[in-house]
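Structure (tokenized):
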């Protein structure tokens, strides 16, 4: 087969791309998938995932109780503060109730939530072996079905004609096809673009201190190209899923094990050893995704989660052990903080903790009084040696700036939907997620719109062929 014979080109190699490629192939289209990463790094951010948020009206295999459409929608509405497209959001939510059967057919296995994630057993279906196993299953199935896969094939630009896809370029190589799905992720790995988006604040470039939790290959090349070529954009370039992660994590691909979950059990201080936000505002799964941005707003984009011996065993330990010391001044010395300032902050906090019944499983009555900022739950004195600290940096999961699509996943140019260019996954997630996040919705969006885009691209290609033959 020559390149010119392909019905559909899929650009990307993560969950959204594979869902699109498999669906287009199932619909009878010939498919070429172009992944910029080498084979051993294939799979984008999707390889780091653990689960998918699913709507269901009654208990289903690995999911307990019910999680109806309305509740899912209200959760999304709340976290996005209304920055979401209801029609597209509901489409993804509904698709999440039926997609698992299709995923199983392509070799994905699910498992019940394990300890530490039990609070998600009602809403999120976990992949057995995580996102890596899911991707391996999808790639295996795609190869068996005859999808042609090319690694180390970064697409730099597209040839478009009046909003229609004509060809993709990998360097000087031109690859034509009848339809195209762009599923090449966000732009979080592009440090220059992140720098430009965040700008300079108080003489600092905050983005210089960000770590990227996932792949290094999401450079946003096609996102930038499409916006430059007149595609309508959605969401703000500084909006992203941004978590506080261990400052010792690698620049890319630290993944889930670098997340620091001790925040609500102690206090968090900045480089001046001062607290800056209520660490006990709400349950950690509802708050973990705001802490990246909070740390990004601190001087030097660094902070420290400080706990004492009482907290050990109550949170999932990250991959790097905490810094440990017998006294607070010694801990300050290890962290490079002013010892008197840290002791002062802890003493003020300890003095403000009111007696209560500590229970990390509920919004308990252990709160501070007369302290700014307050700690409204799980406030217990930090007084039991040894003391521990985890250094924190903003960890970008994925960016939200994307291209605007409709219910057919068609890319819009000045309000007009393309007839053969579609988008899925992070590159269009901003249509549903203008800001905020609820765990597992990234894979819901990628799976739903990947399958829609694949089906639409196959239909556009096959219909186009029929027109040409008539
Ligand atoms: C550590 C971590 C944990 C996460 N956990 C979860 C979770 O449990 N549940 C959940 O729902 N979400 C989770 N997410 C978010 C989730 O990964 C994304 O929402 C989802 O994977 C997006 O899928 P995608 O296919 O759009 O992007 P990706 O999986 O990132 O794939 C993008 C692909 O495009 C390729 N590419 C980029 N540019 C080009 C180009 N120019 N040419 C060719 N190919 C290109 C990349 O190499 C990559 O293969 C997590 C993310 C991270 C980083």
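Design, position by position:
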């Amino acid at each position: 087969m020559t390149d010119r014979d392909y019905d559909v080109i899929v650009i990307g190699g993560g969950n959204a791309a594979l869902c699109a490629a498999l669906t287009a192939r199932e619909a009878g289209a010939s498919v070429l998938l172009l992944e910029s990463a080498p084979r051993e790094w294939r799979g984008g951010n999707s390889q780091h995932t653990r689960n998918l948020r699913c709507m269901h009206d009654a208990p289903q295999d690995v999911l307990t109780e019910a999680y109806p459409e309305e509740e899912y929608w209200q959760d999304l509405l709340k976290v996005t503060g209304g920055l979401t497209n209801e029609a597209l959001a509901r489409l993804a939510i509904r698709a999440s109730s039926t997609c698992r059967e299709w995923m199983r057919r392509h070799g994905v296995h699910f498992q019940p939530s394990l300890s530490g994630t039990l609070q998600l057993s009602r809403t999120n279906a976990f992949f057995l072996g995580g996102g890596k196993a899911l991707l391996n299953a999808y790639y295996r199935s795609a190869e068996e079905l005859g999808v042609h896969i090319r690694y180390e094939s970064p697409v730099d630009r597209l040839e478009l004609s009046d909003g229609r896809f004509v060809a993709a370029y990998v360097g000087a190589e031109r690859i034509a096809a009848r339809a195209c799905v762009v599923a090449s992720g966000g732009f979080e790995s592009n440090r220059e673009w992140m720098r430009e988006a965040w700008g300079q604040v108080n003489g600092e470039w905050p983005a210089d201190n960000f770590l990227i939790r996932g792949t290094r290959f999401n450079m946003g090349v096609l996102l930038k190209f499409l916006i430059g070529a007149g595609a309508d954009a959605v969401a703000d370039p500084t909006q992203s899923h941004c978590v506080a992660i261990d400052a010792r994590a690698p620049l890319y691909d630290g993944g889930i094990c670098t997340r620091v979950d001790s925040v609500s059990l102690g206090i968090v201080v900045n480089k001046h050893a001062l607290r800056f936000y209520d660490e006990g505002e709400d349950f950690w799964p509802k708050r973990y995704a705001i802490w990246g941005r909070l740390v990004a707003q601190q001087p030097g984009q660094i902070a420290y989660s400080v706990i004492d011996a009482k907290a050990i065993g109550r949170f999932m330990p990250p991959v790097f052990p905490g810094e440990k010391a017998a006294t607070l001044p010694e801990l300050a010395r290890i962290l490079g903080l002013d010892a008197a300032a840290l002791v002062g902050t802890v003493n003020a906090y300890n003095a403000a903790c009111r007696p209560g019944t500590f229970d990390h499983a509920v919004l308990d009555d252990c709160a501070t009084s007369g302290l700014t900022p307050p700690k409204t739950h799980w406030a217990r004195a930090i007084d039991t040696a040894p003391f521990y600290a985890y250094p924190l940096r903003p960890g970008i999961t994925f960016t939200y700036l994307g291209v605007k699509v409709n219910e057919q996943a068609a890319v819009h140019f000045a309000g007009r939907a393309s007839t053969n260019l579609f988008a899925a996954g992070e590159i269009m997630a901003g249509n549903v997620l203008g800001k905020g996040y609820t765990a597992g919705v990234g894979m819901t969006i990628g799976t739903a719109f990947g399958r829609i885009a694949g089906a639409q691209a196959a239909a556009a290609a096959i219909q186009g062929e029929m027109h040409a033959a008539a």
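Reviewer-requested clarification: The first helix runs from residue 15 to 26. The first strand starts at residue 8 and ends at 11.
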